[in-house]
Amino acid sequence: xxxxxxxxxxxxxxxxxxxxxxxxxxxxxxxxxxxxxxxxxxxxxxxxxxxxxxxxxxxxxxxxxxxxxxxxxxxxxxxxxxxxxxxxxxxxxxxxxxxxxxxxxxxxxxxxxxxxxxxxxxxxxxxxxxxxxxxxxxxxxxxxxxxxxxxxxxxxxxxxxxxxxxxxxxxxxxxxxxxxxxxxxxxxxxxxxxxxxxxxxxxxxxxxxxxxxxxxxxxxxxxxxxxxxxxxxxxxxxxxxxxxxxxxxxxxxxxxx
Length: 257
Fold this sequence. Notes:
Blueprint: E1 2-6, H1 10-22, E2 27-32, H2 36-46, E3 51-53, H3 56-60, E4 65-68, H4 72-84, E5 88-91, H5 100-113, E6 117-118, H6 127-133, E7 138-147, E8 160-166, H7 167-173, H8 179-188, E9 193-199, E10 206-214, E11 217-225, E12 227-228, E13 231-235, H9 236-250
Parallel strand pairs: 1-2, 1-4, 2-3, 4-5, 5-6, 7-9
Antiparallel strand pairs: 7-10, 8-9, 10-11, 12-13
């Protein structure tokens, strides 16, 4: 499978390193980035045969699956075009899909072109359990995200709740930090998903606690995630989840819901 990256920053760098180690049956042939110099450094670091593009249509000609590892705006700007071009798409910046119109348009483009939109579980566990629970009634999903003040753009000196409320509003306020919240909202419904964002100067790792209640009972999932190297806003587990998803796409046996 020929894979292309949109974005050549922290997430793409980690994923690329893991792909080299895991030796999956895929090849990263192309990268697309508005910063050509950064993308060229990425190419030289991993594979000089990789082609760097700054034009999205030329980029799509040489790939079968696209990994978006850039930003919310990249999903908005290129998501539909990728799907209409007949390419599968892995979306990392899931906060963009809180826009229901965009989500509907992307789903329609995927159906019409017989391709798929994949959303990795990201920096949290429990997504399989939540999907199963949502077959029946789920009353509420609460996500409590605790990170360092620096990674949340805050200067507080003690543990402080920066936000508690509907997940969509929280994503607007913390767009680079709450892709996990968006993923949970996409599974359970945004109207049933509550986000609480906590800044704590005394922690070193990102923490996510998910509390799910419904007809099935109650589920609590707690994650303590190491931040990604060079970017404390992103957990290392989020990058790992992309590689796990690629393994599932390429494999013949699927485990989990």
